[in-house]
Amino acid sequence: MCAEDAGDLVCIACPRSCLLRVDPKDPSAVLGAGCERGLEYIESETTSAGRVFTGIVRVEGGARPVAPVRSTTTVPRAELLGVARRLATVSVAAPVAFGDIVFTDPCLGIEFRATGDAPAAAGVNEGRSA
Ligand code: SF4
Q1: Whole-number pLDDT of residue 28
Q2: Span between the terminal Cα atoms of the chain, in Å
């Protein structure tokens, strides 16, 4: 049996994972928070919730077919599916290096950085001078 109700939130600001609940007798009070960050967390979750978006992009000519990426800021939850659809259309040329900005979402202006390398496939850049 799950102890959580639909109105409960688990704070993810630290590993303690406090179960937060708005006091039914006083909607302005939050129960279960182990510290002030929990109050900030439930405030942000109930007003402007967002998530850091992690995914992959296709890499053309790479030793690996994809590179991992993550958004540099949080993406509003209502926009997550749209971002996923747009990111699925992205294809970049190898090489991709950790930290490269590989995509800027055209609707939200949020940048996505590579979180891993995707070197060029052997032979792709051979014969070219730097
Ligand atoms: S309320 Fe504070 S102690 Fe509890 S999980 Fe959040 S940050 Fe950690």
Answers
A1: 79
A2: 62
C-alpha–C-alpha distance, residues 91 and 65, integer Å:
10
**Which helix (H) or strand (E) covers residue 104, if one does?**
strand 101-104
Say yes or no to pLDDT of 12 above 80.
yes
Interatomic CA distance for residues 27 and 22, integer angstroms: 6
Indicate whether residue 16 lines ligand 1 (CB < 6 A). Answer: yes
Same domain, 58 and 24: no
31 and 65 inside one domain: no
CA of 50 to the centre of ligand 1 (A): 18
Whether residue 59 sits in one domain with residue 38: no
Closest ligand 1 atom number to CA of residue 38: 1
